[in-house]
């Protein structure tokens, strides 16, 4: 593996290599289901489990609450019903 570059600026940060490896594997074969994460239906049982697993983490993450509040306060409708 080449030497890792660390990003200390605002925005995306450098992730641990093990996290990137697991994400890369799930893109190709999600949880050994034989289909990649970005290929499967957003209505599949496997995909629908993700928000339920992540919800407690988001609720307990103070920084995530700030981010959610920030974007919720600035949400604009995608289309108008006029």
TrEMBL record:
EC nos: 2.6.1.52
Needed cofactors: pyridoxal 5'-phosphate
Phylogenetic classification of the source organism: Bacteria, Pseudomonadati, Thermodesulfobacteriota, Desulfobulbia, Desulfobulbales
InterPro entries per record: Pser_aminoTfrase, PyrdxlP-dep_Trfase, PyrdxlP-dep_Trfase_major
Top-level taxon: Bacteria
Gene3D superfamilies attached to this UniProt entry: Type I PLP-dependent aspartate aminotransferase-like (Major domain) (3.40.640.10)
Keywords of the record: Aminotransferase, Pyridoxal phosphate, Transferase
Pathway: Amino-acid biosynthesis
Gene Ontology process terms (BP): L-serine biosynthetic process
Gene Ontology molecular function: O-phospho-L-serine:2-oxoglutarate aminotransferase activity; pyridoxal phosphate binding
Annotated source species: Candidatus Electrothrix aarhusensis
Keyword Membrane: no
Record-given protein name: Phosphoserine aminotransferase apoenzyme
